[in-house]
Specification:
Layout: E1 3-9, H1 22-29, E2 33-39, E3 52-53, E4 63-64, H2 66-74, E5 83-92, H3 95-103, E6 106-111, E7 116-117, H4 119-124, E8 128-131, H5 141-152, H6 162-170, E9 185-186, E10 189-190, H7 200-218, H8 220-229
Parallel strand pairs: 1-2, 1-6, 4-7, 5-6, 5-8
Antiparallel strand pairs: 3-4, 9-10
Helix pairs in contact: 3-5, 7-8
Bound molecules: adenine (ADE).
């Protein structure tokens, strides 16, 4: 069964973009997932294809009109999965949410521009607001690409090495340990001896320690949660 994404945007030419390359591109070519763009502008009622208007109450920027966004959402009504609106106001995205989405049948992603989307259409369609983090992009499209990429790599059959996913679950909630490849010495810097030892148990223990150290040092918030789980 294919995992199907609809992207509602006023910039359909931004897609598939990076999703047409590499792992995600190959997986789409293999029929494991599909992406369809819906041009919100096609649902504008006037011949100038106006999708936005000035905000009630004044202020800078423009707001996407509820009637136009509604019509675009209606055009994909009945499609499986949640409707996700990418916005810095949303719930911060994490790997657990990504896993949940990847286990489902797909999703509809609404990309906003301007100052945002009229609140009423978000309410009317039970839209789930999701943020990539505490920074502001000029629109939802790059965020949509990141969200879709994170989901697609988890779909069954997509990751070449299933081991990579196993390794991720071994490391659940921790940041990655440091990686090294040949040469064993480069510009006077040596690869940690344990990695050259061939002793798998010691290597595993070293990697675990390193992952814990990096997490503790860089992300005390993640570390506190990881400790609570152990
Ligand atoms: N749109 C604009 N900024 C965003 C962010 N930080 N996350 C998700 N969508 C966005």
């Amino acid at each position: 069964m294919s995992w199907d994404v609809r992207v509602l945007t006023i910039f359909p030419e931004m897609f598939p973009g990076p999703l047409g390359e590499s792992l995600a591109g190959k997986a789409a070519a293999d029929g494991l997932w599909s992406l369809r763009t819906v041009n919100i502008r096609d649902f504008a009622p006037d011949r100038h294809a106006t999708v936005d208007d000035s905000p009630f109450g004044g202020g800078p920027g423009m707001v996407m009109r509820p009637d136009v966004v509604h019509a675009a959402l209606e055009s994909v009504a009945g499609a499986p999965g949640p409707v996700i609106y990418l916005t810095p106001r949303g719930r911060p995205l994490d790997q657990e949410t990504v896993r949940g989405l990847a286990r489902g049948a797909g999703m509809t992603v609404l990309c906003g521009r301007y100052e945002g989307v009229d609140e009423r259409v978000l309410e009317a369609h039970d839209v789930v607001e999701v943020s990539l983090g505490d920074f502001v992009l000029s629109g939802g499209e790059p965020a949509a690409i990141a969200l879709i990429d994170a989901c697609v790599r988890l779909l069954p059959g997509v990751m070449g090495a299933e081991e990579s996913l196993e390794e991720e679950s071994f490391q659940a909630g921790l940041l990655e340990y440091p990686h090294y490849t040949r040469p064993a010495e480069w510009q006077g810097r040596r690869v940690p001896e344990v990695l050259l030892s061939g002793h798998h148990e010691n290597i595993r223990a070293w990697r675990r320690e390193q992952a814990e150290r990096v997490t503790r040092e860089r992300r005390p918030d993640l570390w506190a949660r990881a400790v609570a789980r152990i």
